[in-house]
């Protein structure tokens, strides 16, 4: 792909509202932006979406920075890369660090689209011109107020983070003023085996699904729960590869798959998961990482594939940011986002703002 230079930036973007999870509150989002330039000066952009603490997966933005700088960047045989998927095979000798791998691969996909003058959606075989959009409600949000706001954009799926044992009541409250709101909860693995009776009490609430009730790795416990629930289970943290997805589905540990490009190590693996799920009639949706527009753009392309039949965590730029890194910003109208047709990610990167939020830069020349 004639790669001349790779630049990594550590950035910090202020969130419009604090994002509250069980593990604390995020006010400023730390991210790594990867920029890969070819010999003609075309640039591809990717994003490493690891958080500053390992509350979601074991990677952090700092661990990803180190692994990229010390191990991945020097070890890739850049001259042998003729297609973005070559990156995954070259990096497959190393365990884990999937978000670091995914960010690098993302920049290659954007660049590849620009070199071929094709949109990312077109490159990967996307068939939709709009993707359906869902939104996550953080624990810090005043539910009634934010739901009223989000209804203007017409979001097609609302996701509630859990506050153990309070969610039953929260769901009832929401249903009281918005009875037909398409609602799901995401437990981020906080329930334990002893909570199975409580989870059964949620079965009558009409949830679209329950995401990641137990800790990752516990396919057996998820299977036990799914056997006792009508509400479909969806796995997130548990699924880091196609192999995990096959295991979960074939064991009956879940009925729905959350695909995040970052969690599975890149677009190539995400495409393989989508393909297998489609052949096996397993519904998939695209997860989110409180990410910038660069990563949202990659998600929009992914979600334009056939198998993405459930609205994803792909919200408007304004859901998180006063100002986003892309032009134009992502907009949600009537619960949908238009899939851009321009080459690569299809949005222009706001390089002036990118420079403004950059804290630290590292340049590597192959
Ligand atoms: O589990 O999907 C998750 C945010 C941080 C860590 C984990 C998760 C999330 C989200 C964010 O749910 C969804 C979004 O970005 O819209
Ligand atoms: Mg989740």
From TrEMBL:
Residues 140-232 form the Mandelate racemase/muconate lactonizing enzyme C-terminal domain. Gene3D superfamilies: Enolase-like C-terminal domain (3.20.20.120), Enolase-like, N-terminal domain (3.30.390.10). Keywords: Lyase, Magnesium, Metal-binding. Pfam families: MR_MLE_C (PF13378), MR_MLE_N (PF02746). Its EC number is 4.2.1.113. The keyword ATP-binding does not apply. This is o-succinylbenzoate synthase. Its cofactor is a divalent metal cation. Transmembrane segments: none annotated. The gene is menC.
């Amino acid at each position: 792909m004639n790669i001349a230079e790779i630049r990594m930036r550590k950035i910090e973007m202020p969130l419009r509202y604090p994002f509250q999870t069980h593990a604390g509150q995020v006010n400023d989002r730390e991210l790594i932006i990867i920029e890969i330039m070819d010999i003609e000066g075309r640039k591809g952009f990717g994003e490493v979406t690891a958080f500053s603490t390992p509350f979601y997966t074991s990677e952090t933005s700092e661990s990803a920075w180190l692994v990229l700088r010390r191990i991945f960047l020097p070890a890739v045989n850049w001259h042998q890369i003729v297609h973005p998927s070559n990156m995954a095979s070259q990096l497959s000798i190393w365990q884990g660090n999937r978000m670091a791998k995914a960010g690098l691969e993302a920049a290659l996909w954007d660049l590849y689209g620009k070199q071929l003058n094709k949109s990312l959606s077109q490159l990967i075989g996307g068939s939709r011109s709009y993707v359906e959009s869902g939104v996550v409600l953080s624990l810090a949000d005043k539910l009634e107020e934010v739901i009223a706001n989000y209804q203007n954009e017409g979001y097609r799926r609302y996701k509630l983070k859990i506050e153990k044992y309070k969610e039953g009541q929260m769901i009832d409250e929401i249903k009281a003023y918005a009875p037909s709101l398409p609602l799901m909860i995401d437990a981020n693995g906080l329930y334990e085996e002893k909570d199975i009776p409580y989870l059964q009490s949620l079965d009558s609430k009409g949830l679209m699904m329950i995401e990641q009730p137990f800790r990752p790795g516990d396919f057996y416990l998820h299977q036990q729960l799914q056997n006792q629930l009508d509400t479909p289970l969806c796995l997130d943290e548990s699924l880091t590869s196609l192999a995990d997805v096959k295991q979960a589905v074939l064991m009956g540990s879940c009925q729905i798959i959350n695909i995040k490009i970052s969690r599975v190590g890149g677009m190539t693996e995400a495409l393989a998961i989508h393909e297998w799920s489609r052949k096996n009639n397993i519904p998939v949706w695209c997860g989110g990482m409180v990410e910038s527009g660069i990563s949202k753009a990659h998600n929009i392309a992914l979600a334009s594939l056939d198998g993405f039949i459930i609205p994803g965590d792909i919200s408007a730029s304004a859901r998180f940011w006063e100002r986003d890194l892309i032009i134009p910003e992502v907009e949600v109208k009537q619960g949908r986002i238009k899939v851009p047709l321009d080459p690569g990610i299809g949005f222009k990167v706001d390089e002036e703002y990118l420079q403004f939020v950059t804290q630290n830069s590292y340049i590597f020349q192959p």
